[in-house]
Amino acid sequence: MYISNPSASFTRPNNTTAYASGNLVANSITAGSVVPMSLVLGNSSGVGSFRLTRARLIKSGTTPTNANFRVHLYQASPTAANGDGGAWSTSNSADWLGNIDVTSMLAFTDGCCGTGSFPAGSEGYLKLAAGKTIYALLEAKAAYTPVANEVFTLIIEELFAF
Is this prediction's pTM over 0.85? Predict the structure, then answer.
């Protein structure tokens, strides 16, 4: 058995413009400059079969009010139709693997953290078409007011059985 915790981070723009539910939370306000988080899943055999057990989402801002997010996962890098603060809309519907909701976060002195898992009935068993990389974009699911230059870190808890 192999367990891995790949992670990826991004820094959102230098503003405090509130998000509405359904808005993309990203690294750039320009659609063509949005870079999805890239997470390399690990196993020594190189086989693209994995079980994702849950996700942890960490943000550098210390206020958890309305910190409710949806993590969209893809097997190929998607292209965002909008930039940060615009409606979540992407390409690659055939490569969308599903979503994980992080519906609440706990406040700590150095940021906030929350966990989520795939919705009931859609367990995170994956066999990737090629490689071991998955991509993620973040969607606000509540009227969330961010901190300028807030850093978001996604950690995927992954299990691979040999």
Answer: yes
